[in-house]
Amino acid sequence: MKFLTTTALALVASASFAAACEVTLRSSDTHPDGYPTVEGVKAMAEEVRERTEGRVCIEVFPSAQLGEERDTIEQTQFGVIDMVRASFGTFNDIVPVTQTFSLPYLFRDVNHMHAVMDGPIGEEIGAAFEERDLVVLAFYDGGARSFYNSQRPINGIEDLAGMKIRVIQNDVFVDMMDALGATATPMPYGEVYSAIQTGVIDGAENNFPSYDSSGHAEVAKYYTLDEHLMVPELVAMSKTTWDGLSPEDQEIIREAARNSSTTQRQLWADAEAASRANVEAAGAEIVEGIDKQPFIDAMAPVYEKYATSPESQDLVERIRATE
């Protein structure tokens, strides 16, 4: 007797899934099964299937099965894939307005980010995506990045002075660290643990789940909730696919997507809380309630360099004015 491989079983399951539906939409995510974004789209899929009585189905492919974010975005634009979940950061070259959302300390807190994305500004962003053959269905939470280090608690901007902090290879991040008085040290993520352990760098920056799962809390026990970067994530559909749906199905999918954002955000909050509990139990010291204003004020040269057009400057002001 021959046994089917895992891939073959997946193909058989996929074929069976599609056979039960009149319309099957394929959705891509680079995160693994069980991750909040994956589970958010699954919640959306479940609501769509229930409300259409099994007529419209969304099949979620996690773990980059259909390709990495950049590739799957392009495939979605061309209608090869029906849906994609991706970070705003990946769209910077495709939808230029998304670049503004990579500016440090743009959002006051996570509730502010949600208010911005769920309001008129979010609708404007969605319109910009349609010009690139993508229909935005929902905005998800990608978490907040904060500083952690092995040397001392960061209670104020002066505590960052002279520190060597790992950042991703991005000019905005490098300039952010310069403005804060620290030294930006770009390096691959996989090298961060040993680099902190051996003193090559003093720390890094990331969200709680990454700080926990990477083991960085073992070598950098001071974590400061400054939340300098919150980059939204989104779920978008190919405009080609969207235009092929009936108005009734479009409305069902839009409503299910918006409902899924609530589910995804709660799952992300739960993941953050669990990771925070883990690192605190392991001895990490969490610094919160700091005065962010000096950090924000220090970003003036960064905004002058990267928010150069009247449109981006206006967007920044309207985001900051959002309650």
> What structural class is derived from the secondary structure elements?
alpha/beta
What's the CATH H-level homologous superfamily of the largest domain?
Answer: Bacterial extracellular solute-binding protein, family 7
Overall mean pLDDT score?
A: 94
The N- and C-terminal alpha carbons lie at a distance of 64 Å
**What order do the strands of the largest sheet run in, or round the barrel if closed?**
2-1-3-10-4
Number of domains: 2
| Structural shape | globular
Determine the strand fraction and express it as a percent band: 15-25%
What is the number of helical segments per DSSP (H or I, 4+ residues)? 13
Q: What is the succession of H and E elements?
A: HEHEHEHHEEEHEHEHEEHHEHHH
| Helical amount | 40-55%
CATH architectural category of the largest domain: 3-Layer(aba) Sandwich
Q: Report the uncertain regions.
A: 1-13
Summarize the main sheet: 5 strands, mixed
CATH fold name of the largest domain, please? D-Maltodextrin-Binding Protein, domain 2
CATH C-level class of the largest domain is Alpha Beta
Number of strands: 11
Give Rg in angstroms: 21 Å
Main location: periplasm
Subcellular location: Periplasm
Keywords: Periplasm, Receptor, Signal
Protein name: Tripartite ATP-independent transporter solute receptor, DctP family
